[in-house]
Structure formats: structure tokens, C-alpha cells
Amino acid sequence: MTVNRASARYEGFGKEGKGSITTKSGVLDKQPYGFGTRFEGLPGTNPEELIAAAHAACFTMALSFGLARAGYNGDTLETSAAVTLEQQDGGFTITKSALTLTGKVPGISADEFAKIAEEAEKNCPVSKLLNCEITLEHNLEA
């Protein structure tokens, strides 16, 4: 079992409040977040951006291991994730995570690449955690 930790601190309330996020690894160290970083494009991060990063990283790693299990030697995999936050029922809900993958995998067919990518999307831990629509677009480069 692996346990990872992060913490958040928020000072003030509502739109005027300001927060910071810190991770145990130190990758994030009092990284600012708040209404402005979430909705107004101000410098800092926000929960949806962090979820997008986690989903892209987790899926790409799962795909890497799936390709290795299938006997392929890697070149590159690049994934972006776009997490959608929508206002619903008087609050906000994460409704979608859209994964976009580009891969270079010598010797694989487009069909096999798609099959292994779809399996990775279904089985990566972050995909399993998310309670939203997940889409996957994939492109195999020659």
C-alpha cells in the first residue's frame, strides 16, 4: 500500500480568501490557489488543474506498463487531460476528463495501440477514482 499526502490552507472566506497547497514531496510548496486561480486565470493552481495533471500522468504510466507487458519497447507517449468543471444544482461538479494521447510505438498496429490505450484508461487508478465522463482520443505516430 502506498499513501501520499498533501495539505491545503485557506485564509479568509469566499472570493476574497486565499489558499496554498503543499505536497509531502515538496513539488508543491505553498502553491497559491483560490477563486482567482480557479475562475479568473490568476497565477497559481486549482483543484481541476491538479486532477488533470494526475489523470494524464496516471493514464500515461498505466499505458506504458500495458505496452511493456505486450512486448513493445517504447519511444514516447504524450497525454494531455482537460478537466471540465460545471455549475450544476446550485454548486459545481467535475463533469468530464478528456484525455488526448499521442504515441510513438515501433511495430504496433493502430488497432492494438487503441486496445491497449483503452484498457489503460479503464484501469488507471485515477480513472477509477473519477466519477465523471472520461473520453480518450488517441493518435499513433509513425
From TrEMBL:
Entry's Gene Ontology BP terms: response to oxidative stress
InterPro entries named among the record's database cross-references: KH_dom-like_a/b, OsmC/Ohr_fam, OsmC/Ohrsf, OsmC_Ohr_Peroxiredoxin, Peroxiredoxin_OsmC
Single Gene Ontology MF annotation: peroxidase activity
The protein's name in its UniProt record: OsmC-like protein
